[in-house]
Specification:
Helix content: 40-55%
Distance between the termini: 9 Å
Number of helices: 4
Number of domains: 1
Structural class: alpha+beta
CATH superfamily: Glutaredoxin
């Protein structure tokens, strides 16, 4: 399994852009292998993200390990604060 970060390269929301970048920066800094999946390039990816999150309206960034949903940005931040990132990512 591998960590997947669902994001969008096309967003009018500065907040979403900042959240996405923070997730990618933290994973890179901690040398955690991950795959970034741009949902704006393929509607199937957006559908998969929403299916895994069990929420038809969820927005990126969303984080999974394989096909197992880990959580959203807020849960990611909480895991960092609690020093539980690896547990959160199901590594």
């Amino acid at each position: 399994m591998s960590v997947k970060v669902f994001y969008t390269s096309v967003s009018g929301s500065l907040e979403i852009k900042k959240k996405q970048q923070k997730v990618l920066d933290v994973l890179s800094a901690k040398k955690i292998d991950f795959e970034s999946i741009d949902i704006s390039q393929d509607s199937n990816s957006k559908d998969l993200m929403r299916e895994l999150a069990h929420d038809p309206k969820v927005l990126p960034p969303q984080i999974c390990n394989g096909n197992e949903y880990c959580g959203n940005y807020d849960a990611f931040l909480l895991a960092i604060e609690d020093e539980q990132l690896e547990k959160f990512l199901k590594l």
